[in-house]
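Hey, can you fold this one?
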Amino acid sequence: MAAAQRTADERAAAMQIWPTRSGDPLSDRINTMPKYAVSNTLENPDWANTTVVSGDVADAIKKLKEQDGQGIVQYGFGSVSKLLMERGLLDELRLWLYPRADRRRRIRSLNRRASRRATP
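Sure. Predicted structure:
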């Protein structure tokens, strides 16, 4: 699992329960899997098995991809994702959209346009 620091901070804040949970397959898997936080300021991450990636991020991710094991999952989309795309290191991109309603109801309009395009 890889994340930029802002995403990692948000994720850690939202998921502070993981380090305290154990005994079920999901918690045990998340707590024992290697995690990588991309940051130029974070030095001592609190979550177990977390390594800070700084400096040449693209090179570090390339080396991780060359290792045996499972694929890398990155949460969040921002500068790290863009860098990976530019360097050809992003194999698959899945976007999850969480719509929010605003006063002008833009989301409803976007959903209508998207469904029209998706319908053959």
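The longest strand covers residues 35-38. Let me know if you want another pass with a different chain boundary.
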